[in-house]
Structure formats: structure tokens, C-alpha cells
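for the recovery benchmark. C-alpha cells below, seq after
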């Protein structure tokens, strides 16, 4: 069984978490799987088009410019996708980060320390691998952050395609890695990839951001009850914040994260009773996640993944480039080494132990899934080599190759372990007392030892109770 039993005093990793968290993350991953499949399809279409006889039309479309120049918004379609549409994706990242660390299982330091440390290892080691490969080329070292990213949508799409019955603990571990990875990616973009910063628009951005925050916090129940009002009030204010941050020289996706942070994630309670229905963050997530996964990210991938390889000769040249090699080694080797290595080290220096129902090969499979960089890696490649199209193309060849290799290797490992995962899945679904909560979540896995949390005990239909 994956997780702690009531009589165990030794913390186990990966931890299953609470039943409410398993339900929530299961729902997120199902939506991301659909978006990930769309992501793969659009990226493949762009790659084929960019290398077809009609390739000029693809690049003409990608480079078509429009927008209001005085506000620094005269951008190409590709730039609008990267700066504008990805802000929706990063808005959801901000929501998820805040929810995990304020109201989710990661609010507990004991639960957070292992996956957070593993995620740090999964960022640091790939960056060091890339730098080591490109150490003699100062002009390309700036791409060190490219292999640090994890694309959760692509990763869960792989899980959906290979039919893996990944246990809840491993799914939560994977999502936590991706969430912390996104936090570090945003920090990297804000600190290392912002140039020509203009403080005046950034200072002006504080005013609409403050208004947005006050409205979201003080009138969350109103916006929750009347979601259309959010579209007509909060969305325009958020757009102004985005435009001012963009004009200030900070990558505009950072504005998306900040706006996500401003939304309350703790449900209001009535007279000491349970939380009354979904909160504003859940309403926003319900409305924006399909837009992000079904449109924003696939469109970005379409405009960013279209690389003119130049036939077999061009592909060979790209694969021989130190930039490409550094990215491939960083994502396919550095990611799993960093994640599994840090986790293993923690089992040696702390009381944390690997769950006895799992093996290190299981964490290796999940760590390889985390080596699928794609969306954020493509974004960082554009930021790293904006003035060097040839190197940028080689970087994208590296990202596409590494993501494919990581997906194949992870699929082989996880498929080989699927029979074991099916048994764990059956144990996690068992509900002998027929109370709608699987028994394993009433054996010390809730918010309080030995019992499910109050949120876990919220009445649910039988159908809902069976889908963590």
C-alpha cells in the first residue's frame, strides 16, 4: 500500500496525501491529459508545416505583426502566443502554487520537504549538466535554464497514451514536482531573462494590481456567485496589469502568476460550518483551465515548435551542437539524477523512507516524465537565443528530441510496472465500510492521524468517490 498506515511512525515517500487532495489532483491531471494530447498534435503539425514545401507560409503566419506600438504591443503572432496566451497558463500556475502552499498538502513542512527538495535537484542538476557541456562556449551558456523545466500536460498525456495506472502517491509527487518546477521557472524568467527594465510602467502596474487584489479578496463571494462579473471587471483590470508589466520589460507571463497569487484560495465558512461550495480560485480554475489546456498552450506550441530542421544534414548538424547535447543530457539524464538522487539522499540523512510498496525504479519512471520540458523549455529557448535564430532552432531540436526520449523511456518503465500499479490502485479504491471514502485514507492519511479530514468527509456521490 502506498503511504503511511496508522501505526507507522516513519514517514514514507512518496506520500499519498489526503483524499480531498487525491480527488483534486486526479481531476487536474485528467484535464491536463487532454490538453497534453492537443499539445503534441499541434507541435507535430507545426514541425511538419515548417519543414514542408509550404514552410514560408508557416513562418509568414508566425511573424505576422499587429498591436498598438505606443504600448509596446506591436507583436508577432508568435510573440502574442508566448507573452499573451501563456499568461493564462501561468495564471493557473499561480493559483496552483498558492493553493498547494496555503491550503493544500504542501502547507505541511513535513509533507513538502521531500518533493520540494527533489524538484530543486531536478532543476539544479540539469542546469549544471548543460553548463558543463557548454562551458567553453560563453555565447551559449545563457541557455542553462532550458533543461530545467517540466511540462505536466505533456507528461500526463504520455500516461494517458500508455495507459499507466500510476498510484495516487506517484501522481501527487509528479504534480508537486511540476508545480515547484514552475515556481522556479518563473523566478528564473523574472530574474535572468528580463532586460531593458523600465521602472515607470512597473510602478504604474502596482495600482491596477492593488485594485484587482482588493476586489478579488473582498468580493470573492460576489464574483463566485456571478462569474460573468469577473469577466467584465477583473479580467480588464488584469489585462492592464499584464500590459504594464510587459511594457516594463518583465516577461508578461510573470504578471499571470502574480494575478493568480492575488486570488483567495481558502473557502469562506458560514457560522463555523463547512466551506460553502467551491471558492473563487476553483471557479477561475474551472473556467480557465480548459482555455489554457485546450487553446492557449497548444497555440503557443504551434508557433514555437515549428523548427526548420533542414533535412537529414541539418538534423545531424543540430544534434552535434553542444547546445542540443546539453539540453538532451540535461532533461533525459540530469532530471532523473537530480530528482531521484536528492530523494535517495534524504532517505539516508533523515527518517524518511521509500514506501515499501514501491521501488526506486518507480521514482525513476516519474523523474523521466519530469524530463519532458517542452512548453516552458521552448519559452526559455526563445528568451535565451532571441537574437540567434540558428542556435534557437538547435535548442528547440534538443527540446523536442529530449522530450521524446524522456517520454519513451518513462513509458517503458511505467508500462513494465503497470501490473503492480493495478494492485495498488485496487487497494486505494477499496471501501469496506461503504462510506464513500476509500479505507486507506482513513488509516492516518487525512489531516489528522488515523482519520480522514473534514473536507474528505464531505458527502459525495458514489461516482465521485471512486475517481482519485
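predicted aa per position
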Amino acid at each position: 500500500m502506498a503511504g503511511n498506515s496508522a501505526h507507522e511512525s516513519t514517514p514514507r515517500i512518496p506520500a499519498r496525501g489526503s483524499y480531498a487532495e487525491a480527488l483534486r489532483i486526479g481531476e487536474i491531471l485528467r484535464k491536463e491529459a487532454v490538453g497534453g494530447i492537443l499539445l503534441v498534435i499541434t507541435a507535430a503539425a507545426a514541425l511538419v508545416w515548417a519543414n514542408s514545401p509550404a514552410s514560408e507560409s508557416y513562418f509568414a503566419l508566425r511573424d505576422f505583426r499587429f498591436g498598438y506600438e505606443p504600448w509596446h504591443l506591436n507583436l508577432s503572432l508568435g510573440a502574442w502566443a508566448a507573452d499573451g496566451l501563456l499568461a493564462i497558463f501561468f495564471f493557473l500556475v499561480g493559483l496552483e502554487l498558492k493553493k498547494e502552499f496555503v491550503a493544500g498538502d504542501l502547507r505541511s513542512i513535513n509533507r513538502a520537504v521531500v518533493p520540494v527538495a527533489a524538484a530543486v535537484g531536478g532543476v539544479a542538476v540539469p542546469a549544471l549538466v548543460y553548463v558543463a557541456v557548454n562551458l567553453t562556449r560563453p555565447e551559449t551558456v545563457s541557455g542553462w535554464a532550458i533543461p530545467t523545466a517540466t511540462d505536466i500536460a505533456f507528461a500526463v498525456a504520455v500516461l494517458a497514451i500508455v495507459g499507466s495506472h500510476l498510484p495516487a502517491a506517484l501522481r501527487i509527487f509528479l504534480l508537486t514536482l511540476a508545480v515547484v518546477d514552475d515556481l522556479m521557472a518563473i523566478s528564473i524568467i523574472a530574474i535572468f531573462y528580463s532586460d531593458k527594465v523600465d521602472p515607470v510602467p512597473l510602478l504604474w502596474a502596482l495600482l491596477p494590481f492593488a485594485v484587482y487584489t482588493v476586489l478579488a479578496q473582498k468580493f470573492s463571494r460576489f464574483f463566485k456567485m456571478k462569474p460573468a462579473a469577473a469577466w467584465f471587471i477583473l479580467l480588464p483590470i488584469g489585462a492592464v496589469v499584464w500590459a504594464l508589466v510587459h511594457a516594463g520589460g518583465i516577461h508578461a507571463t510573470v504578471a499571470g502568476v502574480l494575478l493568480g497569487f492575488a486570488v483567495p484560495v481558502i473557502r469562506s465558512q458560514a457560522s463555523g460550518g463547512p466551506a460553502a461550495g467551491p471558492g473563487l480560485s476553483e471557479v477561475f480554475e474551472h473556467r480557465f483551465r480548459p482555455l489554457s489546456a485546450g487553446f492557449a498552450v497548444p497555440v503557443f506550441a504551434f508557433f514555437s515548435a515549428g523548427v526548420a530542421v533542414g533535412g537529414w544534414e541539418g538534423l545531424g548538424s543540430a544534434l552535434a551542437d553542444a547546445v542540443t547535447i546539453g539540453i538532451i543530457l540535461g532533461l533525459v539524464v540530469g532530471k532523473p539524477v537530480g530528482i531521484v538522487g536528492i530523494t535517495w539522499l534524504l532517505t539516508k540523512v533523515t527518517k524518511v523512507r521509500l514506501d515499501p510498496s514501491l521501488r526506486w525504479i518507480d521514482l525513476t519512471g516519474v523523474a523521466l516524465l519530469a524530463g519532458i520540458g517542452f512548453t516552458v523549455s521552448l519559452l526559455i529557448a526563445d528568451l535565451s537565443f532571441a537574437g540567434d535564430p540558428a542556435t534557437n532552432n538547435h535548442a528547440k531540436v534538443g527540446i523536442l528530441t529530449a522530450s521524446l526520449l524522456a517520454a519513451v523511456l518513462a513509458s517503458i518503465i511505467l508500462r513494465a510496472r503497470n501490473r503492480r500499479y493495478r494492485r495498488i490502485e485496487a487497494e486505494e479504491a477499496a471501501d469496506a465500510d461503504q462510506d464513500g471514502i476509500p479505507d486507506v485514507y482513513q488509516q492516518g492519511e487525512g489531516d489528522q492521524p488515523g482519520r480522514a479530514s473534514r473536507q474528505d468527509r464531505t458527502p459525495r456521490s458514489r461516482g465521485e468517490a471512486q475517481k482519485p
